[in-house]
Amino acid sequence: xxxxxxxxxxxATGNVLRVGGRKVRSAAIYARISSDVSGEKLGVARQLxxxxxxxxxxxxxxxxxxVDNDISAYSGKPRPEYLRMLADLESGARxxxxxxxxxxxxxxxxxxxxxxxxxDRVGMHEVATVTADIDLGNDxxxxxxxxxxxxxxxESGRKSARGKRKARQSxxxxxxxxxxxxxxxxxxKVTIRDSEAEIIRQLVNRLIAGxxxxxxxxxxxxxxxxxxxxxARWRTTTVKSVICSARIAGLRTHNGEIVGPGIWEPIITVxxxxxxxxxxxxxxxxxxxxPRTYLLSGLLRCxxxxxxxxxxxxxxxxxxxVRRYICFNGPDRGGCGxxxxxxxxxxxxxxxxxxxRLDSDELRQAWEGRVKANPDLAQLNxxxxxxxxxxxxxxxLYAARPRRITAAEWMAARDPIxxxxxxxxRAIAHVAxxxxxxxxxxxxxxxxxxxxxxxxDRRQAIIKATLRYATIAPGTPGARSLDINRVQxxxxx
Length: 493
Fold this sequence. Notes:
16 helices, 13% strand, Rossmann fold, 3 domains, alpha/beta, Hect, E3 ligase catalytic domain fold, five-stranded mixed sheet, 493 residues
């Protein structure tokens, strides 16, 4: 122990740990600042400048600099550059670390312990700091480092508690918060902007009267009113966040809880806001989603504008409804709104086409070509063929008269072979494509017979394994049946 400690030497300035006099090949400089309000990175710039100077004094070559700006070491959030530095230390690309102070590296004791373990594991003991005389290479140095880490964690905890208390006090005082101007108010977040406030009142009144969010968002977009962030078009989710906000009723929230009135004037009354929330709650209770009935959801595109078609049900009478795929042009859709196709005929057409394609020589040959062209797939396919022959040989030995092997021997040999075949087929599907197409080729007629008993999720998986998507061309007005030329599928190969 003493001899090892004698091998270590510290520099006269700063802190440096050296083991066996080994020369540093490539040092890492790490810098971090937990809060950068200005965004100018001046704090880390000063750290880097001092660390570079220390490296020059030691004669250490700096391999790379790792900077985490505006990231706390106490919050527990990932520090990308710190993790990158650890990976480089682990790989041996860096064999020393320079940091302004130990609390730039760690403010959580457990993180320090992980760092020490890594250093011991890879034999990296060259650590230098600008401000402290801490030698991580001996027991006293480790003890002091742990004390500093514990103290830094305590200070960070106190700072966090003070920040949370300050935020709570601001909320209880009704002061405005948030980085952006709220819709309906000026930049001071207190003065009402009359033009936007009138829009909010109209939205609230129309919602309470029973109008849908989609209709309200369409209307708002027609007014050419931009969002707070300057977006030209509103989405239903954005509109909902505005009209459900406690702020527009003059209320201040903190962590999702209303803590009292704000210092700004309300745009709507508290009673109106309660009516808005009650309306959404009512819709949530009564809006249970019907069982999925659309086979081609996400697989059809509009032949006019290439927008994905959406499923929709049209009620012709209380006891009769028609399932359709429609190109919507609403606020959250962006389509042209000029194309509709009845669901059942197009679903039947593409389902039957999928069955035929699965049994076609064209698909089988294309698949075999992919297998042969891919060395990994070819090897897996060869293993399957060999194991299949082995299963045949086993069956013949068991079926021979007299029997060459017992039932127990046959099962003991069969099970691992079948397991290998299953694993190889899964591997082929994973390497070639993730749709499971390899397990369906040649089974079209079998699937046709099974289809009535399959759940909708399984049916969709089969279609998605064979079809990338299908474009639906415009139809002839007044046509009573589906023109198959309207359906232009793009199949998987």
